[in-house]
Each structure stands twice: as structure tokens, then as C-alpha cells.
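Support request from a user on the community tier.

User writes: "When I paste my C-alpha cells into the form, the page sometimes reloads and wipes my input. The last time it worked, I copied everything first. Here is what I submitted, just in case something in the input itself triggers the reload:"
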């Protein structure tokens, strides 16, 4: 709610996309560094 008051929808959308892409990179890095994953990822 606070973000929508301070930022334009375009800025909020860009922030959400940046967070999502960063989270994807962290997931990939953790998956590469971790032992073979459980079948949960299948």
C-alpha cells in the first residue's frame, strides 16, 4: 500500500520484476551449490 502511494505503477512493476529476477538467480545459485535436489523440483 505504501509503495503504490510513493511510486508510479511503472516503478512498482519494475521493482517487482527486479525482485523476481533476483529471486530466480538466487534459486539457481542455491540449486547449483546444493547437493542433488529432491524430486520436489521435478
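"...and here is what came back when it finally went through:"
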Amino acid at each position: 500500500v505504501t509503495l503504490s502511494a510513493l511510486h508510479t505503477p511503472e516503478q512498482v512493476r519494475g521493482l517487482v520484476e527486479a525482485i523476481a529476477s533476483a529471486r530466480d538467480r538466487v534459486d539457481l545459485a542455491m540449486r547449483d551449490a546444493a547437493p542433488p535436489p529432491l524430486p520436489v523440483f521435478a
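Agent notes: The reload is a front-end session timeout and is unrelated to the input. Helices lie at 2-6, 9-33. The two ends are 36 Å apart (CA to CA). Escalated to web team.
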